[in-house]
Amino acid sequence: MGEFKKYLTTNYPSLESSSDGLALVDEHRAAVCENISLYMEKNEEEFQGYLNEFASAVWSLLTIVSQSSSRDKLAVTAMKFLTTVSTSVHHALFATEGVLPQICQSIVIPNVRLRDEDEELFEMNYVEFIRRDMEGSDLDTRRRIACELLKGIATNYKKQVTDIVSVQIQNLLSSFATNPSSNWKDKDCAIYLVVSLATKKAGGASVSTDLVDVQSFFLSVIVPELQSQDVNVFPMLKAGSLKFFTMFRGLIQKPVAFQLFPDLVRFLGAESNVVHSYAASCIEKLLLVKDEGGKARYTSADITPFVPVLMNNLFNSLKFPESEENQYIMKCILRVLAASEISREIAGPCIVGLTSILNEVCKNPKNPIFNHYLFESVAILVRRACERDASLISAFESSLFPSLQTILATDVTEFLPYAFQLLAQLVELNKPPISPSYMQIFVLLLSPESWRRSSNVPALVRLLQAFLQKSPHELNQEGRLNQVLGIFNMLVSSAGTDEQGFYVLNTVIENLEYGVLTPYMSNIWNVLFIRLQNNRTVKFQKSLVIFMSLFLVKHGTQNLVDTMNAVQANIFLVILEQFWIPNLKLITGAIELKLTAVASTRLICETPVLLDAAAARVWGKMLDSIVTLLSQPEQDRVEEEPEMPDIAENVGYTATFVKLYNAGKKEDDPLTDVKDPKQFLVASLAKLSAVTPGRYPQIINESFDPANQTALLQLCTTYNCQIV
């Protein structure tokens, strides 16, 4: 400890006279600060005897460390040590009179003030500046650590810190007022202190501060900057003001904030990349503000009048140098399209602007976040505009088709999943018959070559589902059904894609007549039974139960039993007992639960083989499983088993599939006529038991779990049904 202290307090004039020598000494002292921070955290009891002199030495060191960026590491590690002390049981060191004002004046304020390096980063590398300033990756910068030190001290001395910093903020603002053009950094420092010391509520976006009254500070300090007619003067001050507005957006009253909306739109035209990015981010975050009850504060009626100018300015800001792929602007475009009414007048320029950008980024995709927001923007524009005006579909197709065909023709790997999802969205919006241009894509879709990349599979399945739903009759031509079932076979054979395989199969079963399916059913069951034999994962078994249920409700119980038994005599009962009954209780999802419960109910009430006295035990087990599914909460009946990934699929780098939220498939309910599966169960049982009174209560008593007997009795009482 004596050696450590010596290194912190001794001067080395012969070394410190040169920059290289000073860097060596600083590195040495920074290492000591890191060491004593560790002692403070890990060996507090043994270290406390040395604490006072070390705290004093570090403090003295900080007051003489210059603002040069070459000395940042020493300054940051020294402040981190004092922060650790301030939050420990030894915080009384900071209670001595005069200590807090001195720390604030000689350590915090000098380290929070903007330096030449900050201005250079602001101008030369706006992405890194925003990453540090807005997104919190500035953990090791002087500005951030100085504020963390204040927060640490405020843990035990909140009122004193608040009073001192409030006075400092007023002094800084007074200094600015005396000479705004020379002292603008003082105002920036004041704004930064308020923003950085604000308290965020856990799990929410709301913030608060005791340093200033937010409303009056906003009106007197921030609004004049936002209403400044020259958007390019003092850009760092403008950026700080926009950041304040963004952070405290929930506390600014709607009339005040709304009055500034035209100014935010104006700031999108600022030459500074940071300023127009912050303006876009502020608009985007404002549109997310919710009032009590979760209702959006800014409605489409509020925003729509601004949309033409707003969208024009957003698209223009993407033309500034280095902002061509600005993710903050594209995210704002997405949010505006989601929140406003999209008329034909707005939709036209927007689709032209978005496809123009899409054509450009296709040449060399660089920014995945920007690209994702771009495709989401296209998807939400198509969805919301066409919901309002179906005649826009053809205009969108004319604009989008060349871009999507370019992606497919030039094999832009990163964009293929997006392109397939957008095509699926367009197919679903069309009314049959599907145009020849789509049918060309359908042919491409059926080629095994298209399915080789695993990243394409979910999007291709989504597109295939869209085609199967819109033009099922096309499947019967030119051997296409064979090709589709070949794709199903390929997908279902692998644990990584089996769920996607079932999506294909379920869509085929749901949209084709039984007569068309009959010649293929033996082959389908063979594929499923082989997979069940070789690799029966929980996920696969659940998907199989859902498929069998869907087949039953679409094509009848007898067809289900007969097609299965045609593969192997009496295999239906084996599958029922070994796989359907045990896995039924694991089904999740509202539509899936209803489908499997109703299908299972129909099975025990309609199937001759199960109504036979010899099958009484299986009948009872099946009903017990249905009652478990319908009466127990999901968390009590489902134990999630981790699936073992298919190692072969994880080797090497591949582009990943990213789902477009706004091009998502609407989940269809195949049983719209059944409102309540519980009522359906007890009504079906009551009807069945009336035919052979006394038989089924006995089976229930012999097969049922006691808790399920009670649950079934409660269901019968609730729906006024009786099993006789």
From TrEMBL:
One function term, GO molecular function aspect: small GTPase binding
Highest taxon listed in the record's lineage: Eukaryota
A Pfam family per the record: Cse1
GO annotation, biological process: protein export from nucleus; protein import into nucleus
Limits of the Exportin-2 central domain: 1-283
Protein's UniProt name: Exportin-2
PANTHER family: EXPORTIN-2, IMPORTIN-7, 8, 11
Domain Exportin-2 C-terminal: 284-714
Species of the source: Hibiscus syriacus (Rose of Sharon)
Annotated GO CC locations: cytosol; nuclear envelope
